[in-house]
Amino acid sequence: MADCKLARQAKQDKQSGGGCCSLPSNVPDAVAEQFPGGMGWWDMPRPQQRLPALRGALKSFPWREGAPQLSGCVFSQAPAAEAAKFMYEATKVDGVWDLLPEKIRGVYWMRGNGVSEELTSLQYGVYYPDRRLLLVPFAPATWGWPAGTPANAPYGGNIYGGDLTYLSAETLLGDAGATKDPATRSAKDWLCFSYAWRDSSLEDASLGAQFGPLDQHGGMQVAGCITGKFGLHQLPGEQPGALWNRSCKWGVGRAACLEFGSYTLTKVIDAAGAPLEPNHSEFVDYMGDVPIFCWTGFEDEGGE
Length: 304
Known about the structure:
By secondary structure, this protein is of the alpha+beta class.
């Protein structure tokens, strides 16, 4: 997502001395201290053991040359409906998925997102019910990108296709190749999403995209006090959690009120693993014959 790319750049600016104001993280210190330096997919309480077998049903997706940071990573592709079902099954891990609120489970279409990315799953994460906090480290099968440009892509598809899609994916993937080996993996620059809900209704949440330490502001903060704040706000729908406004607001300091880049997070696979209509059919029609590709682990089973 574009805001993730900006968040990664903002972290670099902060480390180099940029920025004049400090915004708080939405992750309580007591939770952040459980993951010194950051939270990676390897910190999840249960691994994605079914991933190698599930990806065997998909076609290989070749990565471009010149990406040594992804050495050893495997990417796979499938038609839209098949890819959504794969992501659901690969992130449905017993002892993880079943501990999350039902309304969060499933697979979502990033409908209206102008950046070349289409699907995400929030259900491979750690939920703290007493704090109404969800942590979702970036992991295999949690994100899906288009292997082409849908006919009705947002903004005329100007941020789709070719190197733009690879760049979008590589922003989130970081040094994924190094995370296979416990000796080389590090969470200091690894992406983890944090959702902090306002109250027990779980209808409104602040969203952080932390690259590394969870006690840092997970939005955007760069020199000149330019800030970005992101959120998740439930919209009316037949099923709770089926539609969310994924808000992006920009401004100066804490006054981030200019909305730009927001989209509708639309559930296409429900908590039970079934297509959620009419969302699912609308997603499949939108994608047409353009496949979805995902990071599906590593060249061998180690690290998955």
